[in-house]
Specification:
The structure is a single chain. With about 675 residues, the protein is mainly alpha-helical. The N and C termini lie far apart (about 85 Å). The chain has 34 helices and no strands. Helix 1 runs antiparallel to helix 5.
């Protein structure tokens, strides 16, 4: 371990950045995909799309939904703005977004050194440097750095640290400083809600730093009416103003969470809530001390409630409280300030305000600054108390850093894809239904049906009212052509959650496949009752009417689907197929032209248009449309076969033969291509 006093400051920053890179910058970690919440908040978020008005993100929540009763009330428009800017520059590429997060983490880690050096100016600089290095490598930060939605924590942390530095070091005039601090806090608040604690933390640290302990009781009006106290009082008032703004944005209504998301907050017993919440504080502290139990989600019964004083887990709570009491009674000024840096940023996640999680590693990002300072203070004190063992103590700290770096590296690779992330939670949260649900979901996407069946059933076993797992298991049975079991689980899903529109629609699809048309139509209408603007449901009703031999009603509902979602390619394709069956060639050209304005690179639409152009003898235009469709989907045997027919008709026999052969290489059972190629060869 190096002696920090001998290192020049630029080299210290270089070491901190290098540590960040080693932990989170390897190719396997960066070259990943969108995982978990990234999919909803980024990939599927309309506010990040360049086609959506930029002002829309200031009206919606973090997930792109309206700030209504169904919203989690997460309002982070500036974080969304950064994602939108990246989308504009290089598209939605996870690797680049992860690199931005890594750079921001490097900035935060360097700021930790600069800010702690300013706050704890009277102590050994080794404390500040070791704290920054520990912060840089701590595995608890993996979710924030490697999960792209962790951008919110990173941005608010930068605002937090810059505010602290300004408050301690700035020589700006009084009012200008207050304006800067409030503005930065407001910016932080638009990145993540926990930034509401920036100004209170500044005030608390300043109070602890300048408080004269022997004169607390004897302070006079003269002492109270100082510029510092006036500034602190003003900052407290401005915090209340920021809080009012934040509540105003959500219409002074709290978010609605399911009981399973946070069983502690949902418990009817006051004693259980108090005991369990205090146990969670101890568990969060343990994750900072020993970050081995790391998981993407801790909901759905992962942590049983603490209901009685006889529960052995209360010992962990008692140890934590004893440590805090001893620190308050015997700690020096710097130690109390470090404790404040740990406790105050954690307040928004402490249970005082109802949150939708039990434990979330991301919320420990800013509080871990205080933790890292306390640990570093402990190591430096040990060196002073036991000078003979100084080298051994330094080796212990070096070993701690190496172990944490290794853990962060492994964890960052686990965060590179959903399968490894979800499976990594099994040893820690094996009784968490959401873990099994997500493993099953990924397995189903990869067509690993046996694995998907096993984990969906385990999720339902752990949580019988898991409506999404019931629905997905039903869909899996439908894909396996076991319609009776599919109907059973889909019905169970809507029994649990009557307004689950997606489950009602999927139930309708199964009932339609079973030829129970009346029941299917009733299920579809139930879906539309709970979700009026449901394009997929209108599309499926159209398909139902086709099965019922009512093509005019089918067309009506496909048009409804397109009106709601002009990019609904399947509805357009069915409309074009309907026109083709009727022999309306000119209408196909008009409709496909309209469709391509919304979906310019849809292969099926181009294919329909190419066929229509060929029927009209417009061979060159038809050829261009076919070639574009094949460029988009080169492995469609039908596309090659029909282009072969076009070349056959226009007497380009060699080209026709090439595409017939290509069609048969893709699908050797395609009879039309085989027959046409036979005719072509016979005519040569």
């Amino acid at each position: 371990m190096w002696s920090s006093s001998k290192l020049p400051v630029p080299l210290k920053y270089l070491i901190i950045i290098t540590c960040c890179y080693i932990c989170f910058g390897c190719k396997a970690a960066l070259d990943g995909d969108f995982v978990f919440d990234d999919n909803v908040a980024i990939r599927k978020n309309a506010d990040i799309s360049l086609e959506s008005p930029i002002t829309q993100m200031f009206r919606n929540d973090f997930w792109g939904g309206k700030l209504d009763n169904q919203s989690h009330k997460s309002y982070r428009p500036l974080t969304i703005l950064t994602f939108r800017m990246e989308n504009q520059v290089y598209g939605l590429k996870p690797m680049y977004m992860k690199i931005v997060n890594l750079v921001l983490h490097c900035i935060c880690s360097c700021l930790v050194y600069s800010v702690t050096k300013a706050i704890f100016a009277t102590i050994d600089d080794g404390v500040n440097f070791y704290a920054a290095v520990l912060f840089a490598v701590h595995p608890i930060h993996t979710e924030v750095v490697s999960g792209i939605v962790g951008r919110a924590e990173l941005l608010s942390c930068i605002c937090f640290l810059v505010c602290l530095w300004l408050y301690v070091k700035s020589r700006l005039p009084f009012l200008l400083l207050v304006v800067f601090l409030t503005s930065l806090s407001f910016v932080g608040l638009l990145c993540k809600e926990n930034a509401i604690m920036i100004l209170p933390t500044c005030v608390t640290l300043d109070t602890l730093k300048h408080l004269k302990w022997m004169h607390v009781i004897k302070c006079s009006k003269k002492h109270l009416l100082t510029q510092r106290n006036f500034k602190n009082a003003l900052l407290v008032l401005l915090t209340l103003l920021l809080l009012y703004f934040r509540l105003y944005i959500i219409d002074f209504q709290g978010p609605t969470f399911k009981a399973v998301d946070n069983p502690v907050a949902s418990s009817n017993s006051t004693l259980t809530r108090i005991l369990s919440q205090n146990y969670l504080y101890a568990l969060n502290t343990w994750l900072l001390l020993c970050p081995d139990w790391l998981a993407f989600d801790w909901a759905l019964g992962t942590i049983p409630l603490v209901e009685y004083f006889s529960d052995v887990r209360i010992l962990g709570t008692a140890v934590l409280h004893l440590f805090i009491v001893l620190l308050l009674l015997h700690g020096n000024r710097n130690e109390l300030m470090a404790l404040a840096l740990l406790v105050l940023p954690f307040v928004p996640a402490s249970g005082l305000i109802r949150v939708g999680f039990v434990i979330a590693e991301r919320v420990l990002y800013v509080p871990s600054i205080g933790f890292c300072v306390l640990v570093s203070m402990g190591f430096v004190k040990m060196q002073k108390f036991y000078p003979k063992f100084r080298r051994i103590i330094l080796m212990m700290f070096s070993l701690l850093l190496l172990v944490m770096m290794a853990k962060s590296l492994v964890r960052s690779i686990e965060w590179s894809n959903e399968e490894s992330l979800f499976r990594s939670a099994l040893p820690i949260c094996g009784n968490n239904a959401k873990v099994h649900y997500n493993i099953a979901r990924v397995a189903a996407e990869k067509n690993q049906k046996e694995v998907a069946f096993r984990h969906y059933k385990r999720a339902i076993e752990l949580y019988p009212e898991y409506e999404s797992a019931l629905m997905n298991l039903g869909n899996l049975y439908r894909e396996s052509n076991d319609l009776e079991m599919a109907e059973y689980y889909l019905k169970k899903s809507v029994e649990v959650m009557d307004d689950f529109s997606t489950a009602w629609m999927n139930l309708g699809i199964v009932q339609a496949a079973m030829k129970n048309y009346r029941e299917a139509l009733a299920s579809y209408k139930k879906a539309l009752k709970h979700r009026k603007k449901y394009a997929n449901c209108y599309y499926n009703i159209g398909n139902l009417y086709i099965d019922m031999k009512n093509s005019s009603m089918a067309l009506k509902y496909w048009k409804e689907a397109i009106a709601l979602d002009p990019k609904h390619s399947k509805a357009w394709a069915n409309w074009l197929a309907y026109l083709d069956n009727k022999g309306y060639v000119h209408e196909i050209l008009e409709t496909s032209e309209e469709a391509l304005q919304h979906i310019p690179n849809d292969a099926s639409i181009l294919f329909s248009r190419a066929n229509a152009l060929g029927k009209l003898g417009r061979y060159e235009e038809s050829e261009a449309a076919f070639l574009k469709a094949i460029e988009i989907n080169p492995n469609s045997s039908l596309f090659h076969a029909n282009l072969g027919v076009l070349y056959h008709r226009s007497n380009k026999k060699q080209l026709a033969l090439e595409h017939y052969r290509k069609a048969l290489s893709i699908d050797p059972k395609l009879k039309s291509a085989a027959q046409n190629m036979k005719k072509l060869l016979e005519s040569r």
